[in-house]
Amino acid sequence: xxxxxxxxxxxxxxxxxxxxxxxxxxxxxxxxxxxxxxxxxxxxxxxxxxxxxxxxxxxxxxxxxxxxxxxxxxxxxxxxxxxxxxxxxxxxxxxxxxxxxxxxxxxxxxxxxxxxxxxxxxxxxxxxxxxxxxxxxxxxxxxxxxxxxxxxxxxxxxxxxxxxxxxxxxxxxxxxxx
Length: 178
Fold this sequence. Notes:
mainly alpha, two-stranded antiparallel sheet, flat
């Protein structure tokens, strides 16, 4: 099955018209027509857009045509993993919020203890600093203009309009002088 045929099959799977499918994956409608007719081949970006919109599709099937189309069509096989006794990880259930509240006698107290995180010998702990952002009001100037910029502004004010020319689509023009 060719890539163009697989894309046609994806359009059928999506239960959308080709134009709705193009809108769904954010491509031009004409590109869908050109690809499904075999005129053009889809780009990598086009295939990535399909895959990102339909994550249940398998890459192997989409690119090469091998295997199943959807992840749900794969046979579910569980491979039991056995670990030797010394490698088994002992797990204890994590406490939930309510267990922690009942076990914590100082819960809700005004005094809070700050614990410094444990660091390795090569690391040092730097506490987070609260930085208050500086507020800038609308009337506050951001920069003082330099003399060069002021000179340019004053020089531009001295310029006066000499002529205004309007060009029309039919080739005619008008010239205005103040």
